[in-house]
């Protein structure tokens, strides 16, 4: 089958109209959940924009790209979700994508970065999502991560998404509601994605703050020493996962905001500075959370040590009290014939009384010193 035929099959934009008939039978759906497109391929959407508006031109992806390049106006936005190498092959050939960037886009598990391959810009963003839970435990998942890869050219933008969250459907609709902004080209989409990802960071950070507040309240409550330390360690691990998504993005955003890049419009470059500022805020909050968790963990360990010392003092006090009757019983249990008060009528009562008074005095002394 030809490349055009393959793309018709993959994108569902073929002249046969099969997808159009299916689209007329269902309302607009969010193809991000379930993760794979219900249309049977990795393609989430494929749209041509001219003057900031979606065009209704018929044809497949190859025809759309040919029309855009012939007219020199507009761009094509192709959205994919977890494509296989075979599904991505024709797209690679059509847009002349670099093999290293393609490998990263298909395999995923990349750090946030920005790379230039000739006339194409390749950006990787880590997406994050807060996992709702009733109560944080030592096994709770707090932060779920995914990835968005963006191939940016002068007349195209290809988004490759990995993970079951981070849908770009609402973002696409928001951009389409502002044709004037979208008319500035594909770099508008790159900025919108970066802004969307960083806003999600701040949203997740706000949710993590609530978990930290709960742990802090539990630790410094009266039963703080009995708090499971696994909860604190788990939150630190999840915070580290969030940190791995946020911190490496600083350098790519700084480059997008300050370095001249051919495929990024100068007007759009200014907006990346605002995104970079928001990212700095997210980094500062994560660093503050990390320090606070360290302090909470140290406070918890100190509380455990204090509780153990209190327990040892109680054990020692009771052992001292019990030692008095133990000693008396040991002395009078030696079975000597000649012992004081051994055959005295009131000897037993006197020994019991003296032992009880001694134990009571010791108890009062330990109570006064707060050992009991």
UniProtKB/TrEMBL annotation:
It is found in: Cell membrane. Residues 1-34 are annotated as: Disordered. The keyword Transport applies. Its main location: membrane. Pfam families: CorA. InterPro entries: CorA_cytoplasmic_dom, CorA_TM1_TM2, MgTranspt_CorA/ZnTranspt_ZntB. The chain crosses the membrane at residues 315-334, 346-366. This is Magnesium and cobalt transport protein CorA. It comes from Streptomyces pimonensis. The lineage of its organism: Bacteria, Bacillati, Actinomycetota, Actinomycetes, Kitasatosporales.
């Amino acid at each position: 089958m030809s490349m055009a035929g393959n793309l018709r099959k993959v994108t569902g934009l073929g002249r046969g109209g099969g997808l159009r008939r299916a689209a007329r039978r269902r309302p607009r759906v969010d193809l991000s959940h379930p993760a794979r497109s219900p249309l049977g391929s990795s393609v989430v959407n494929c749209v041509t924009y001219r003057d900031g508006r979606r065009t209704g031109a018929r044809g497949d992806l190859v025809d759309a790209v040919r029309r855009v390049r012939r007219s020199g106006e507009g761009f094509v936005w192709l959205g994919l979700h977890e494509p296989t190498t075979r599904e991505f092959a024709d797209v690679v050939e059509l847009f002349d994508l670099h093999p290293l960037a393609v490998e990263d886009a298909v395999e995923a598990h990349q750090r946030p970065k920005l790379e230039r391959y000739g006339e194409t810009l390749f950006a990787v963003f880590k997406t994050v999502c807060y996992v709702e839970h009733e109560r944080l435990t030592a096994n709770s998942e707090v932060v779920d991560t995914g990835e968005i890869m963006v191939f940016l050219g002068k007349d195209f933008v290809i988004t490759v998404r990995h993970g079951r969250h981070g849908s770009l459907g609402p973002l696409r609709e928001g951009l389409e509601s502002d044709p004037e902004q979208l008319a500035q080209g594909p770099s508008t989409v790159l900025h919108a994605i970066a802004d969307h990802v960083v806003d999600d960071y701040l949203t997740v950070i706000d949710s993590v703050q609530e978990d930290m507040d709960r742990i802090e309240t539990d630790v410094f409550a009266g039963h703080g020493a009995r708090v499971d330390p696994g909860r604190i360690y788990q939150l630190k691990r999840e915070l580290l996962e969030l940190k791995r998504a946020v911190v490496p993005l600083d350098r790519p955003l700084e480059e997008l905001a300050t370095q001249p890049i051919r495929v990024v419009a100068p007007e759009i470059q200014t907006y990346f500075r605002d995104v970079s500022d928001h990212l700095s805020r997210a980094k500062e909050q994560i660093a503050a959370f990390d320090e606070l968790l360290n302090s909470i963990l140290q406070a918890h360990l100190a509380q455990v040590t204090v509780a153990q010392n209190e327990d040892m003092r109680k054990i020692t006090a009771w052992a001292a009290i019990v030692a008095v009757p133990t000693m008396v019983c040991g002395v009078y249990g030696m079975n000597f014939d000649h012992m004081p008060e051994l055959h005295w009528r009131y000897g037993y009562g006197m020994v019991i009384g003296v032992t009880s008074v001694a134990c009571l005095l010791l108890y009062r002394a330990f109570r006064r010193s707060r050992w009991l």
